[in-house]
Design a protein that fits this description.
This protein has 356 residues and is α/β, with parallel strands linked by helices. 38% of the residues lie in helices and 15% in strands. It contains 11 helices and 13 strands. It has a 7-stranded parallel beta sheet with strand order 3-2-1-4-5-6-11, with helices on both faces. The chain has a two-stranded parallel sheet with strand order 7-10. A two-stranded parallel sheet has the order 8-13. It is globular. Bound molecules: nicotinamide-adenine-dinucleotide and uridine-5'-diphosphate-4-deoxy-4-fluoro-alpha-D-galactose.
Protein backbone atom coordinates (compact mmCIF):
# COMPACT_ATOMS: atom_id res chain seq x y z
CA UNK A 1 0.00 0.00 0.00
CA UNK A 2 1.33 3.46 -0.84
CA UNK A 3 0.64 6.38 1.41
CA UNK A 4 -0.80 9.57 -0.05
CA UNK A 5 1.06 12.82 0.47
CA UNK A 6 -0.58 14.71 3.27
CA UNK A 7 0.61 18.00 4.63
CA UNK A 8 -1.85 18.15 7.48
CA UNK A 9 -3.21 14.69 7.93
CA UNK A 10 -2.91 14.23 11.64
CA UNK A 11 -5.07 15.86 14.20
CA UNK A 12 -3.18 18.03 16.62
CA UNK A 13 -6.10 17.88 19.02
CA UNK A 14 -5.85 21.59 19.76
CA UNK A 15 -8.33 23.15 17.37
CA UNK A 16 -11.51 21.19 17.83
CA UNK A 17 -10.93 19.83 14.35
CA UNK A 18 -11.70 16.12 14.24
CA UNK A 19 -10.16 13.47 12.04
CA UNK A 20 -12.83 11.22 10.57
CA UNK A 21 -12.08 7.97 8.80
CA UNK A 22 -14.75 7.26 6.20
CA UNK A 23 -14.91 3.69 4.90
CA UNK A 24 -16.64 3.54 1.52
CA UNK A 25 -16.14 7.31 1.20
CA UNK A 26 -15.87 7.14 -2.60
CA UNK A 27 -19.41 5.79 -2.94
CA UNK A 28 -22.70 7.57 -3.48
CA UNK A 29 -23.54 8.47 0.11
CA UNK A 30 -19.98 8.48 1.46
CA UNK A 31 -18.79 11.06 -1.10
CA UNK A 32 -21.57 13.48 -0.09
CA UNK A 33 -20.73 12.98 3.58
CA UNK A 34 -17.04 13.67 2.86
CA UNK A 35 -18.00 16.97 1.20
CA UNK A 36 -20.10 17.98 4.13
CA UNK A 37 -17.35 17.09 6.65
CA UNK A 38 -14.72 18.99 4.65
CA UNK A 39 -17.03 21.99 4.46
CA UNK A 40 -17.18 21.86 8.25
CA UNK A 41 -13.36 21.92 8.25
CA UNK A 42 -12.98 18.38 9.55
CA UNK A 43 -10.06 16.22 8.39
CA UNK A 44 -11.25 13.38 6.20
CA UNK A 45 -9.54 10.08 5.46
CA UNK A 46 -11.16 7.74 2.97
CA UNK A 47 -10.62 3.99 2.87
CA UNK A 48 -12.27 2.38 -0.16
CA UNK A 49 -11.35 -0.53 -2.42
CA UNK A 50 -13.21 1.10 -5.38
CA UNK A 51 -15.24 -2.09 -5.99
CA UNK A 52 -18.30 0.08 -6.63
CA UNK A 53 -16.89 3.56 -7.15
CA UNK A 54 -14.60 5.64 -9.32
CA UNK A 55 -11.39 7.42 -8.42
CA UNK A 56 -12.69 10.56 -10.17
CA UNK A 57 -14.83 11.17 -7.10
CA UNK A 58 -11.72 12.58 -5.39
CA UNK A 59 -11.28 15.37 -7.94
CA UNK A 60 -15.00 16.15 -7.74
CA UNK A 61 -14.76 16.45 -3.96
CA UNK A 62 -11.80 18.78 -4.48
CA UNK A 63 -13.72 20.87 -7.04
CA UNK A 64 -16.59 21.36 -4.60
CA UNK A 65 -14.65 21.91 -1.39
CA UNK A 66 -11.21 23.06 -2.54
CA UNK A 67 -9.77 20.29 -0.36
CA UNK A 68 -8.44 16.82 -1.06
CA UNK A 69 -9.15 14.13 1.50
CA UNK A 70 -6.53 11.50 2.19
CA UNK A 71 -7.40 8.42 0.16
CA UNK A 72 -6.30 4.83 0.71
CA UNK A 73 -7.24 2.20 -1.85
CA UNK A 74 -7.58 -0.49 0.78
CA UNK A 75 -9.98 -3.40 1.24
CA UNK A 76 -11.42 -3.46 4.74
CA UNK A 77 -10.65 -7.15 4.97
CA UNK A 78 -6.92 -6.39 4.64
CA UNK A 79 -6.21 -6.01 8.34
CA UNK A 80 -2.57 -5.11 7.92
CA UNK A 81 -3.24 -2.32 5.42
CA UNK A 82 -6.12 -0.99 7.49
CA UNK A 83 -3.97 -1.02 10.64
CA UNK A 84 -1.33 1.05 8.82
CA UNK A 85 -3.95 3.75 8.22
CA UNK A 86 -4.87 3.79 11.92
CA UNK A 87 -1.20 3.87 12.86
CA UNK A 88 -0.51 6.81 10.58
CA UNK A 89 -3.45 9.00 11.58
CA UNK A 90 -4.81 10.13 14.90
CA UNK A 91 -8.41 9.17 14.15
CA UNK A 92 -11.26 10.50 16.29
CA UNK A 93 -14.19 8.65 14.73
CA UNK A 94 -15.13 6.29 11.94
CA UNK A 95 -18.11 6.46 9.61
CA UNK A 96 -18.56 2.99 8.16
CA UNK A 97 -20.27 2.95 4.75
CA UNK A 98 -18.24 0.27 2.97
CA UNK A 99 -20.53 -2.58 1.98
CA UNK A 100 -22.08 -4.36 -0.98
CA UNK A 101 -25.65 -3.10 -1.23
CA UNK A 102 -27.68 -4.65 -4.05
CA UNK A 103 -30.63 -6.48 -2.49
CA UNK A 104 -31.35 -8.77 -5.47
CA UNK A 105 -27.70 -9.63 -6.08
CA UNK A 106 -27.30 -10.54 -2.41
CA UNK A 107 -29.68 -13.49 -2.90
CA UNK A 108 -27.61 -14.72 -5.84
CA UNK A 109 -24.18 -14.42 -4.21
CA UNK A 110 -24.92 -14.50 -0.47
CA UNK A 111 -21.44 -15.69 0.51
CA UNK A 112 -19.84 -12.66 -1.13
CA UNK A 113 -22.24 -10.38 0.74
CA UNK A 114 -21.66 -12.03 4.11
CA UNK A 115 -17.91 -12.14 3.52
CA UNK A 116 -17.54 -8.53 2.41
CA UNK A 117 -20.03 -6.88 4.75
CA UNK A 118 -19.56 -8.97 7.88
CA UNK A 119 -15.86 -9.79 7.66
CA UNK A 120 -15.05 -6.25 6.54
CA UNK A 121 -16.92 -4.86 9.55
CA UNK A 122 -15.35 -7.33 11.99
CA UNK A 123 -11.85 -6.44 10.82
CA UNK A 124 -12.66 -2.73 11.08
CA UNK A 125 -14.09 -3.00 14.61
CA UNK A 126 -11.11 -5.09 15.74
CA UNK A 127 -8.63 -2.52 14.41
CA UNK A 128 -10.67 0.32 15.93
CA UNK A 129 -10.51 -1.40 19.32
CA UNK A 130 -6.78 -1.99 18.98
CA UNK A 131 -6.20 1.71 18.32
CA UNK A 132 -8.86 2.75 20.87
CA UNK A 133 -10.92 4.60 18.27
CA UNK A 134 -14.34 3.92 19.75
CA UNK A 135 -16.58 6.54 18.12
CA UNK A 136 -18.52 4.92 15.29
CA UNK A 137 -21.32 5.88 12.93
CA UNK A 138 -22.65 2.82 11.11
CA UNK A 139 -24.64 2.85 7.84
CA UNK A 140 -27.66 0.73 8.52
CA UNK A 141 -30.88 0.62 6.55
CA UNK A 142 -34.64 0.71 6.83
CA UNK A 143 -34.47 -2.82 5.50
CA UNK A 144 -33.75 -3.96 9.11
CA UNK A 145 -37.46 -3.40 9.90
CA UNK A 146 -38.28 -6.47 7.78
CA UNK A 147 -41.81 -6.95 6.51
CA UNK A 148 -43.95 -7.34 9.62
CA UNK A 149 -43.72 -4.01 11.41
CA UNK A 150 -46.46 -1.36 11.24
CA UNK A 151 -45.66 1.98 9.60
CA UNK A 152 -44.22 4.43 10.35
CA UNK A 153 -41.14 2.49 11.48
CA UNK A 154 -39.79 3.46 14.89
CA UNK A 155 -36.35 2.63 16.23
CA UNK A 156 -37.56 0.35 19.04
CA UNK A 157 -39.33 -2.06 16.64
CA UNK A 158 -38.01 -5.63 16.37
CA UNK A 159 -35.51 -6.19 13.58
CA UNK A 160 -35.57 -8.82 10.86
CA UNK A 161 -34.54 -9.15 7.23
CA UNK A 162 -35.82 -10.46 3.94
CA UNK A 163 -32.53 -10.71 2.00
CA UNK A 164 -28.91 -11.66 2.72
CA UNK A 165 -28.04 -7.96 2.29
CA UNK A 166 -30.61 -6.98 4.91
CA UNK A 167 -29.39 -9.75 7.19
CA UNK A 168 -25.85 -8.33 7.06
CA UNK A 169 -27.24 -5.04 8.40
CA UNK A 170 -29.22 -6.75 11.20
CA UNK A 171 -26.18 -8.88 12.07
CA UNK A 172 -23.81 -5.92 12.21
CA UNK A 173 -26.26 -4.01 14.42
CA UNK A 174 -26.40 -7.08 16.71
CA UNK A 175 -22.61 -7.42 16.70
CA UNK A 176 -22.29 -3.76 17.70
CA UNK A 177 -24.79 -4.23 20.54
CA UNK A 178 -22.58 -7.07 21.85
CA UNK A 179 -19.42 -5.03 21.36
CA UNK A 180 -20.93 -2.17 23.37
CA UNK A 181 -22.09 -4.54 26.14
CA UNK A 182 -18.58 -5.95 26.43
CA UNK A 183 -16.90 -2.54 26.37
CA UNK A 184 -19.21 0.39 27.17
CA UNK A 185 -16.52 2.86 26.14
CA UNK A 186 -17.73 2.35 22.57
CA UNK A 187 -19.89 5.24 21.41
CA UNK A 188 -22.05 4.17 18.50
CA UNK A 189 -24.69 5.64 16.24
CA UNK A 190 -26.65 3.24 14.04
CA UNK A 191 -28.16 5.28 11.21
CA UNK A 192 -31.02 3.59 9.41
CA UNK A 193 -31.36 5.22 6.00
CA UNK A 194 -34.66 5.16 4.18
CA UNK A 195 -34.45 5.75 0.39
CA UNK A 196 -31.51 8.06 -0.40
CA UNK A 197 -31.76 9.80 -3.79
CA UNK A 198 -30.77 13.17 -5.26
CA UNK A 199 -27.28 14.44 -5.98
CA UNK A 200 -24.97 17.27 -5.05
CA UNK A 201 -26.57 20.56 -6.25
CA UNK A 202 -23.38 21.39 -8.19
CA UNK A 203 -24.06 18.44 -10.52
CA UNK A 204 -20.53 17.19 -9.80
CA UNK A 205 -21.46 14.18 -7.67
CA UNK A 206 -24.32 11.73 -7.73
CA UNK A 207 -25.34 8.11 -7.95
CA UNK A 208 -23.46 6.17 -10.63
CA UNK A 209 -24.87 2.65 -10.80
CA UNK A 210 -23.08 -0.08 -12.73
CA UNK A 211 -25.15 -1.50 -15.58
CA UNK A 212 -28.94 -1.54 -15.31
CA UNK A 213 -30.00 0.42 -12.21
CA UNK A 214 -31.80 -1.62 -9.54
CA UNK A 215 -33.28 1.41 -7.84
CA UNK A 216 -36.10 3.65 -8.94
CA UNK A 217 -34.52 7.10 -9.15
CA UNK A 218 -31.42 6.24 -11.22
CA UNK A 219 -33.65 4.23 -13.55
CA UNK A 220 -36.03 7.16 -14.05
CA UNK A 221 -33.07 9.49 -14.64
CA UNK A 222 -31.69 7.17 -17.33
CA UNK A 223 -35.10 7.04 -19.07
CA UNK A 224 -35.23 10.84 -18.98
CA UNK A 225 -31.78 11.20 -20.54
CA UNK A 226 -32.62 8.64 -23.25
CA UNK A 227 -30.35 5.82 -22.05
CA UNK A 228 -33.34 3.52 -21.36
CA UNK A 229 -36.66 3.37 -23.16
CA UNK A 230 -39.18 2.65 -20.47
CA UNK A 231 -39.48 2.35 -16.71
CA UNK A 232 -41.00 -0.88 -15.39
CA UNK A 233 -43.21 0.00 -12.44
CA UNK A 234 -43.11 -3.06 -10.20
CA UNK A 235 -46.73 -3.62 -9.19
CA UNK A 236 -49.83 -1.51 -9.67
CA UNK A 237 -52.07 -3.42 -7.28
CA UNK A 238 -50.61 -2.60 -3.86
CA UNK A 239 -53.01 -1.35 -1.17
CA UNK A 240 -51.68 2.21 -1.62
CA UNK A 241 -53.49 5.31 -2.96
CA UNK A 242 -52.44 4.71 -6.59
CA UNK A 243 -51.55 1.01 -6.33
CA UNK A 244 -47.76 1.52 -6.63
CA UNK A 245 -45.16 1.07 -3.89
CA UNK A 246 -44.68 3.88 -1.38
CA UNK A 247 -41.25 4.80 0.05
CA UNK A 248 -39.65 7.51 2.15
CA UNK A 249 -37.22 9.32 -0.19
CA UNK A 250 -34.47 11.43 1.35
CA UNK A 251 -32.07 13.82 -0.37
CA UNK A 252 -28.49 12.57 -0.07
CA UNK A 253 -27.41 16.05 1.11
CA UNK A 254 -29.90 15.85 4.00
CA UNK A 255 -28.61 12.37 4.75
CA UNK A 256 -25.09 13.83 4.89
CA UNK A 257 -26.13 16.47 7.42
CA UNK A 258 -27.63 13.66 9.55
CA UNK A 259 -24.13 12.15 9.77
CA UNK A 260 -22.66 15.44 10.96
CA UNK A 261 -25.34 15.64 13.64
CA UNK A 262 -24.68 12.05 14.70
CA UNK A 263 -20.95 12.78 14.98
CA UNK A 264 -21.62 15.94 16.99
CA UNK A 265 -23.69 13.90 19.42
CA UNK A 266 -20.96 11.26 19.77
CA UNK A 267 -18.31 13.90 20.46
CA UNK A 268 -20.49 15.80 22.91
CA UNK A 269 -21.68 12.74 24.82
CA UNK A 270 -21.04 12.76 28.55
CA UNK A 271 -21.48 8.99 28.58
CA UNK A 272 -20.93 6.72 25.59
CA UNK A 273 -23.96 4.86 24.27
CA UNK A 274 -25.31 2.91 21.35
CA UNK A 275 -28.34 4.46 19.66
CA UNK A 276 -30.28 3.85 16.47
CA UNK A 277 -31.78 6.68 14.42
CA UNK A 278 -34.05 6.69 11.41
CA UNK A 279 -32.85 9.05 8.69
CA UNK A 280 -35.82 9.65 6.43
CA UNK A 281 -38.22 12.43 5.56
CA UNK A 282 -41.06 10.80 7.48
CA UNK A 283 -43.28 10.95 4.42
CA UNK A 284 -44.20 8.40 1.77
CA UNK A 285 -44.35 8.91 -2.00
CA UNK A 286 -45.54 6.36 -4.54
CA UNK A 287 -43.60 5.32 -7.63
CA UNK A 288 -46.00 7.37 -9.75
CA UNK A 289 -45.57 10.41 -7.47
CA UNK A 290 -41.82 10.20 -8.15
CA UNK A 291 -42.38 9.79 -11.90
CA UNK A 292 -44.62 12.88 -11.96
CA UNK A 293 -42.20 14.96 -9.87
CA UNK A 294 -39.33 13.98 -12.16
CA UNK A 295 -41.32 14.88 -15.27
CA UNK A 296 -41.99 18.29 -13.75
CA UNK A 297 -38.33 18.91 -12.85
CA UNK A 298 -36.89 17.66 -16.12
CA UNK A 299 -39.57 18.67 -18.58
CA UNK A 300 -39.25 15.15 -20.05
CA UNK A 301 -41.91 12.48 -20.43
CA UNK A 302 -41.05 9.36 -18.45
CA UNK A 303 -42.49 6.38 -20.30
CA UNK A 304 -43.53 3.64 -17.96
CA UNK A 305 -45.31 0.33 -18.00
CA UNK A 306 -46.85 -1.41 -15.01
CA UNK A 307 -45.44 -4.91 -14.61
CA UNK A 308 -45.88 -7.58 -11.89
CA UNK A 309 -44.59 -6.89 -8.40
CA UNK A 310 -40.87 -7.37 -7.73
CA UNK A 311 -40.18 -10.29 -5.39
CA UNK A 312 -39.38 -9.20 -1.86
CA UNK A 313 -40.90 -5.70 -2.18
CA UNK A 314 -43.43 -4.51 0.36
CA UNK A 315 -46.28 -2.09 -0.29
CA UNK A 316 -45.31 0.85 1.84
CA UNK A 317 -42.90 2.12 4.44
CA UNK A 318 -41.69 5.41 5.83
CA UNK A 319 -39.87 6.62 8.91
CA UNK A 320 -40.96 7.89 12.26
CA UNK A 321 -38.38 10.68 12.51
CA UNK A 322 -39.23 11.87 16.03
CA UNK A 323 -36.12 10.42 17.65
CA UNK A 324 -33.66 11.90 15.15
CA UNK A 325 -35.39 15.29 15.39
CA UNK A 326 -35.28 15.27 19.18
CA UNK A 327 -31.91 13.69 19.94
CA UNK A 328 -29.89 14.74 16.89
CA UNK A 329 -31.66 18.04 16.27
CA UNK A 330 -31.93 16.97 12.63
CA UNK A 331 -34.60 17.10 9.98
CA UNK A 332 -34.70 17.10 6.22
CA UNK A 333 -34.71 20.36 4.28
CA UNK A 334 -35.13 19.17 0.70
CA UNK A 335 -38.43 18.25 -0.97
CA UNK A 336 -39.10 15.55 -3.55
CA UNK A 337 -38.92 18.29 -6.20
CA UNK A 338 -35.45 19.24 -4.95
CA UNK A 339 -34.36 15.60 -5.12
CA UNK A 340 -35.61 15.31 -8.72
CA UNK A 341 -34.04 18.64 -9.75
CA UNK A 342 -30.62 17.68 -8.42
CA UNK A 343 -30.76 14.14 -9.84
CA UNK A 344 -31.67 15.57 -13.25
CA UNK A 345 -28.86 18.14 -13.06
CA UNK A 346 -26.34 15.37 -12.26
CA UNK A 347 -27.72 13.02 -14.93
CA UNK A 348 -27.69 15.69 -17.64
CA UNK A 349 -24.16 16.81 -16.84
CA UNK A 350 -22.89 13.24 -16.46
CA UNK A 351 -24.99 10.99 -18.72
CA UNK A 352 -22.50 8.17 -18.21
CA UNK A 353 -21.82 8.89 -14.56
CA UNK A 354 -18.16 9.37 -13.67
CA UNK A 355 -17.17 7.87 -17.06
CA UNK A 356 -18.62 10.95 -18.80
P1 LIG B 1 -21.90 2.61 -2.72
O1 LIG B 1 -21.75 1.25 -3.30
O2 LIG B 1 -22.02 3.76 -3.64
O3 LIG B 1 -20.68 2.90 -1.70
C1 LIG B 1 -20.07 1.88 -0.95
C2 LIG B 1 -18.57 2.05 -1.10
O4 LIG B 1 -17.92 1.04 -0.32
C3 LIG B 1 -18.09 1.89 -2.54
O5 LIG B 1 -17.28 2.99 -2.88
C4 LIG B 1 -17.29 0.59 -2.52
O6 LIG B 1 -16.22 0.62 -3.42
C5 LIG B 1 -16.83 0.51 -1.06
N1 LIG B 1 -16.59 -0.84 -0.53
C6 LIG B 1 -17.43 -1.91 -0.54
N2 LIG B 1 -16.83 -2.96 0.05
C7 LIG B 1 -15.61 -2.56 0.47
C8 LIG B 1 -14.53 -3.17 1.16
N3 LIG B 1 -14.58 -4.46 1.52
N4 LIG B 1 -13.43 -2.45 1.45
C9 LIG B 1 -13.35 -1.14 1.07
N5 LIG B 1 -14.34 -0.50 0.41
C10 LIG B 1 -15.46 -1.20 0.10
O7 LIG B 1 -23.16 2.56 -1.72
P2 LIG B 1 -23.96 3.74 -1.04
O8 LIG B 1 -25.29 3.84 -1.69
O9 LIG B 1 -23.10 4.94 -0.92
O10 LIG B 1 -24.22 3.11 0.39
C11 LIG B 1 -23.34 3.35 1.48
C12 LIG B 1 -23.82 2.55 2.68
O11 LIG B 1 -25.17 2.89 2.98
C13 LIG B 1 -23.79 1.04 2.49
O12 LIG B 1 -23.40 0.45 3.70
C14 LIG B 1 -25.23 0.70 2.19
O13 LIG B 1 -25.55 -0.61 2.55
C15 LIG B 1 -25.97 1.72 3.06
N6 LIG B 1 -27.33 2.02 2.59
C16 LIG B 1 -27.50 2.48 1.30
C17 LIG B 1 -28.79 2.74 0.84
C18 LIG B 1 -29.04 3.22 -0.57
O14 LIG B 1 -30.17 3.15 -1.04
N7 LIG B 1 -28.02 3.73 -1.27
C19 LIG B 1 -29.91 2.55 1.69
C20 LIG B 1 -29.69 2.10 3.00
C21 LIG B 1 -28.37 1.84 3.43
N1 LIG C 1 -39.34 0.36 -8.44
C1 LIG C 1 -39.97 0.27 -9.66
N2 LIG C 1 -39.21 0.12 -10.78
C2 LIG C 1 -37.85 0.08 -10.73
C3 LIG C 1 -37.21 0.18 -9.48
C4 LIG C 1 -38.00 0.31 -8.35
O1 LIG C 1 -41.20 0.30 -9.75
O2 LIG C 1 -37.21 -0.07 -11.79
C5 LIG C 1 -40.18 0.56 -7.23
C6 LIG C 1 -40.01 -0.52 -6.17
O3 LIG C 1 -40.90 -1.60 -6.43
C7 LIG C 1 -40.33 0.26 -4.89
C8 LIG C 1 -39.80 1.66 -5.19
O4 LIG C 1 -39.73 1.75 -6.61
O5 LIG C 1 -41.71 0.34 -4.71
C9 LIG C 1 -38.42 1.92 -4.62
O6 LIG C 1 -37.55 0.89 -5.04
P1 LIG C 1 -35.95 1.00 -4.89
O7 LIG C 1 -35.38 -0.23 -5.52
O8 LIG C 1 -35.49 2.31 -5.38
O9 LIG C 1 -35.76 0.99 -3.32
P2 LIG C 1 -36.20 -0.09 -2.22
O10 LIG C 1 -37.20 0.56 -1.34
O11 LIG C 1 -36.54 -1.36 -2.82
O12 LIG C 1 -34.81 -0.31 -1.45
C10 LIG C 1 -33.92 0.75 -1.09
C11 LIG C 1 -32.49 0.24 -1.09
C12 LIG C 1 -32.30 -0.80 -0.02
C13 LIG C 1 -32.74 -0.25 1.31
C14 LIG C 1 -34.16 0.28 1.22
C15 LIG C 1 -34.53 0.94 2.51
O13 LIG C 1 -32.19 -0.33 -2.36
O14 LIG C 1 -30.93 -1.09 0.09
O15 LIG C 1 -34.26 1.23 0.17
O16 LIG C 1 -33.58 1.88 2.85
F1 LIG C 1 -32.70 -1.23 2.22
Amino acid sequence: MSFPFLADSTNTGTTGVKTILVTGGMGFIGSHVCVSLLEENQQVIIVDNLCNSNKKVLSRIEKITGKVPAFYSVDLMDEEALSSVFKRHNIDAVIHFAALKAVGESSQIPLSYYHNNITGSLVLFKVMEKYQVLNLVFSSSATVYGENNPIPYAEHFPLSATSPYGRTKVMIEDILQDVFKANPKWNISLLRYFNPIGAHPSGLMGEDPNGIPNNLMPYIAQVAVGKRDVLSVFGGDYPTPDGTGVRDYIHVVDLASGHSKALQKLFAAEFPSIDAYNLGAGKGYSVLDVVKAFEKSSGKDIHYVIVPRREGDIAEFYADTTKAAKELDWQVENSLDDMCRDTWNWQQKNPNGYQS
